[in-house]
User: Fold these one by one.
Assistant:
Number 1:
Amino acid sequence: MDKMPKWADVILTPLISLILAMGFSALVILAIGESPWEALKTMVQGALGSSYGWGFTLYYATNFIFTGLAVMVAYHASLFNIGGEGQAAMGGLGVALVLLYLPLPHWGLALPAAMIGAAVFGAAWAFIPAILQAKRGSHIVITTIMFNFIAAATLNYVLVNLLRPVGSMDPATARFPASTNLPSLTDMAAAIGITWGRNTPANITFLVAVLACFLIWVLIWRTRLGYQIRALGRSEPGAVYAGISPVRITVIAMLISGGLAGLMAINNVMGEAERLVLNAVEGAGFIGIAVALMGRNHPLGILLAALLFGFLYQGGGELALWTSIPRELIVVIQALVILFTGALDNMVRMPLERLFLTMKRTSRGAVK
Amino acid sequence: MNIRESLIAIIVLSICVIWALADGAAAQQGIGSALRLMTPLLLACLAGLYSGVFDIGLEGKMLMAAFTAASVAYLTGSAWLGLAAGIAGSLSLSLIHGLASITFMGNQLISGVAINFLASGLTVLIGQNAFGLGGRTPSLTGAGRFQPITLPFADALRDVPVLGPIYSGLISGQTILVYVAFAMVPITWWVLFRTRFGLRLRAVGENPASVDTAGVSVTRLRYTAVAICGILCGIAGAYLATGLSAGFVKEMTAGRGFIALAALIFAKWRPWQALFATFLFGLLEAIANLYPNLDLGIVVVPSMFMNALPYILTVVILAGFVGRAIPPRAGGEPYVKER
């Protein structure tokens, strides 16, 4: 356990993994005949060089915070929730139903109502895989993958056959009532006299997401439930011996996880599109995996990793706009981050552990 | 065969027979289409059978293979060179997977997710760079594609009732990779259950320590399994791009890797049952393609339901309500040799 000092485990290993992932990405850019340095400059300029860029970066980051937290909560119960994509899509359906069918006069009322709708639908979509894992031992990774596809088909059916306004060809719902539109960060900045990020989709949900990070930290490390989740994640027999019911905790952890993934819909469906369209999640559920791995399954790490991926997303869009590098570059970078921080973690960790071990030995030798 | 399997067999067969009686020409077209659609599923499913428990990366390996196969087939004008390139493309991802999950004892699920994204990004990135068609490859013609093969006597038997449509219309006239896929079923069964290699492979999935004690290298066995999986995924991808369609299109696997995974669970990790499961799923896809809104008289089944059915069936199977599917016990775990 304590082969390495804590800072090396928490900061150094993810940093080296990230540098490796970026190095390989640079090689990929070189291989298609472009300059990695120019690409990086375009990305930084486009994503962080103006309040416009920041507006998009924060918008994407908001999505990734929710899906990252979703993966994290499940991970602490040693469950790999790969179904964030489907849960977020169903969350969108929850938001749409609440906003279309409940008369909500003001966004201040609409926001909590839609949050409940999003979380309930997201959690409900995680419930069946959770109960199957807990009671019947069905592998949660496979059931959540299957539920992603079932969610896509369900949403496709609902949008085409049920919620599509009469006369519209577009598989999407009607626009939500204008009274429920969320204030954008631009409006909020303007209220205190700052011109910031005009025409960007970043909205108040970003603040909700930051709050969620804090609340999840409290939940996992400062409450009884969080302790039970972590205990189950570390050792199931240990948890059972301590009187914790694995079935109950598995289901609760997955409900929280699904609810968090569903909450993402507040940002993209209610905040940005203001109606529910097909494929609204756009892969954010899967990026949550990369974000949680990169953020070492800690809310603060997830916040930072989500900002990094928000930057990559917005920067990648700018790259596609100004250079001949397609947007898919970010998918490659994302894959490399998952590969190096997740699957190849030991490749970085083992040599580092050895290094710290020898350093410890030599320093001890010097004292004697 | 137990009751559950015979029941499913009867249902599938009766669907085919009723369909043929109701509309013979459409049934022939639909079942032929099902045979073609099941081919990549079958190959990927058998690939998953070799590789271990849940190989999430089947999708990515197929996608990469489809891309490299289509590119090389276009550049050289030879479908066979395309096939070789497809296998090479898929194998390169298998190698990464092996490195991560065997050598560095990483989580094979996470590695699979990474491989899927890597394939999805790289194919478009390289494709756009090489051909400038937004991630597509140029259309393949002539020898760049695998052409249908007419089996002997197909023309002579065409007018024989029942046998004629089945032999001339369905069995004959497929591309060679379809026959390869079907041949892989008995070969896989033989390799897994009748050879020493197969016994060891199954043992390494259940209890690696016992294989190690017997003096066989666990690492080497697992790398071999991962490589065989890569080769089969390579053939599956090459068939998608150079047999089923005429070129590579962005995200062309469209979840087939996951349907193959579903079929593997449905088949309970057995080759003959895999043939069956993939035919069922191919049939569902063919029906969904032919009838966007299937009117059964009482209810209208939307195509979305047909598309989702393989996943729903898999969840039901996984839930253990219709006979439990038990994966190899130790397949998902890295093996740490005792010192």
Note: Chain A touches chain B through 49 residues (CB under 8 Å).
Number 2:
Amino acid sequence: MSSAAVGDLVAQPYKYGFVTDIETEKIAKGLSEDVVRLISAKKEEPAFLLDFRLRAYRQWLQMQEPDWAALGYPAIDYQDIVYYAAPKQQAKKVSLDEVDPKLLETFDKLGIPLSEQKRLSNVAVDAVFDSVSIATTFKEQLAEHGVIFCSISEAVKEHADLIERYLGTVVPSNDNYFAALNSAVFSDGSFVFIPKGVECPMELSTYFRINSGDTGQFERTLIVAEEAASVSYLEGCTAPMFDTNQLHAAVVELVALDDASIKYSTVQNWYAGDQNGVGGIYNFVTKRGQCRGDRSKISWTQVETGSAITWKYPSCVLQGADSVGEFYSVALTNNRQQADTGTKMIHVGARTRSTIVSKGISAGHSVNSYRGLVQIGPKARGAKNYSQCDSMLIGDQAGANTYPYIRSQQSDAVVEHEASTCRMSEDQLFYLQSRGIPFEEAVSMMVSGFCRDVFNQLPMEFAAEADKLLALKLEGSVG
Amino acid sequence: MIRPYAPVLLEIRDLHAAVDGQPILKGVNLTIRGGEIHAVMGRNGSGKSTLSKVLAGHPAYSVTAGSVQYQGEDLLALEPEQRARAGLFLGFQYPVEIPGVSNLEFLRVATNGRRAQRGEEELDTFAFEDLVRERLALVQMDPAFLDRSVNEGFSGGEKKRNEILQMALLEPLVAILDETDSGLDIDALRIVAAGVNHLAGPDNATLLITHYQRLLDLIKPDYVHVMAAGRILRSGAADLALELERTGYDWVDQELARLGLAEQPALAEVP
């Protein structure tokens, strides 16, 4: 197959690009203190949360949008965004039967059936549509184990004490520009609470869907694992194709107490824009986990394939002694996509350990940067880090950068960093083809081989899917 | 083994091919029948390796004129993977490394593709392990190679043995071995040659591309062809190779001058 013929195949149509035609309640565009109050009022929030939002809003007004990332995009007009949009339906859903069938149908189409007959048997799902959660499955079954899994709006009402105790304690509202914005206007997201000693009996998963064209999505997720508790959580994301850009500025906070473990996986497939870079989601996200307890563990696994721009650094603050942080990432960019992603491992406690495995794949005219910080504090005696950052270039127009930052204030810490860059070459593909392996399969074989270390970390149900997703995204991008 | 009435497997007629717009092959004619072993010799830049790549369908080479019939069908109309599944095999001069792709899995997928083409059932991982272990013995390869990535970190000799292992699994009808002898020590050369001889049968054919007589001491060709300036200048029996060994290629220049042809400057060898 010649390069020209290959070029013609570029970009498999985005499968999730449809818009659900549903009546939506939206507030007017723009951001002000009144808008923040309005969002809080619509969600019937307690006073502490309104205060939290207002404080964040005032901080945000004082902050500057950062520009240090290796990203290029036109200035965002924050007054041209709708900060709250919700499908019109009864305020309180007692059962799934009361959820608008159109919404259920939407999630069916996305491969996330919610109805009792069709839903996945071993995964509990919270489905978020624009600014609100529309349904959470297996809530009662989980409650029997003491596990709380619900939308954050619901948690604010029913578990206000937990929200007040933990919200904003890992990512303070003034942490950064986008975290402050999120803290002011966050709409919905998931709340997970695993009580002491409980191993969550099933995978938990939140599926985020943006539907409106002019709405920003500001999701907020909080996961707390008490002493010796453990949970595996996965988020998935898609959005329709619009020729405008939508802002998605999420905040995710994880808290692990003594001996607790949280595994957080992401398969991000927001609309990435078209071949020329028109449209797509700006995915500006703050994700951070705090290993508060001794011997606790937080593991991030991400497969980032969508979004016009991805800007996120899922991080671990390793506070407890002997705590462990992990970051496994595959970031794939094609066409005009840009990604600046990586992690921060902040070693505070003694003998803390972290592992970073990052695989960047850049095709088309895209730019893919790894940016990571490994920081060893003065009390982190015997801390260890191992980082591995590999980049694969496909074609000759794509770019890959690696920005590793290492700061150590501990002389006996061990910090290792390995990096490599390779190019998927015509000769490698020809070699596989000359053994009877079709072109597309050859590409997919090489990409999944490259990403194997990361895919192995994904929950079983999603590993195969991630593999397929990458193959689909790359279809025809090799020349 | 020459059998005049054996079916024709490969028929190359007036083949012209270019890379980056530069003509390399300028009218190659060659007929290969079942059971035959052919050797193509020639200096660097004579077009030997290009011929093998064009036959296998490398995308960098474009055919500008001529035809290739494979078992009576138009070979050039097929994608590289279709050619492979139909039984055409190219043993590479420089097998590439493919990090992350397990050698075992690669061999299994390739073998099953060929089996499917022949109407045979797919081998599951267990059945395939049995088969691959049996074929490994042929090239005296350590099974540990199966667990590594394709060719990654293999020595030159190991890569070539991995090529012959693939050939043993794919059971091709026409095997083109591009300078399989280059970079091999004498022991590795013997192993590779023994493998090729073992696989050669009355119904398949082998096309050896080589510089050196030492390979032809171990694999006896039925025909020897000398390539120069993108075409086959002379063909003969096995003794032609011995003659070349004695006299060198000086006569080629005289012959080319007589024909009013010039040889391309040798292309840089890419390791």
Note: Residues 1-12 of chain A have pLDDT under 50 and may be disordered.
